[in-house]
Design brief:
- The chain is mainly alpha-helical.
- The protein has one domain: Helix Hairpins (Orthogonal Bundle).
- It contains four helices and no strands.
- Helix 1 crosses helix 2.
Length: 123
């Protein structure tokens, strides 16, 4: 196998390992994935449009990516300092805040997509 191909395959392998590690070690990642599965089920049941699926998948990717970045930042901060450090706290809190902003935005997008579908469904 060519060296470039092997490096490419390894980069994908390491990326998937990172996702799996985050899922195994981070409670919030499990919560995001659980909610994502519920939204997928709701989307199937309520027959959301192709455009809605594009929006939902984009929001899934953004929230999961943000959680992965947050985990990376928290891990690096923990490697650098074990004792209490105000700047380390700020870095971790800001990263967590970014995930929260995206998660809240995703909920709002989900409500915009699903409320009309739910109202239609119960009629």
């Amino acid at each position: 196998m060519k060296e470039k191909t092997k490096k490419l395959i390894n980069s994908f392998k390491y990326a998937f390992q990172g996702i799996i590690t985050s899922f195994k070690t981070e409670r919030n990642m499990k919560i995001h994935v659980f909610i994502m599965i519920l939204v997928i089920i709701a989307g199937i049941v309520l027959k959301v449009s192709s455009l809605d699926w594009i929006i939902l998948v984009t929001m899934f990717a953004l929230v999961i990516s943000a959680e992965l970045f947050n985990t990376a930042i928290e891990t690096v901060v923990d490697m650098i300092t074990k004792e209490k450090n105000e700047k380390a706290k700020i870095a971790k809190d800001v990263a967590a805040g970014a995930v929260l902003v995206l998660a809240i935005g995703s909920v709002i997008v989900g409500l915009i997509i699903f409320i009309p579908k739910i109202l239609e469904f119960i009629k």
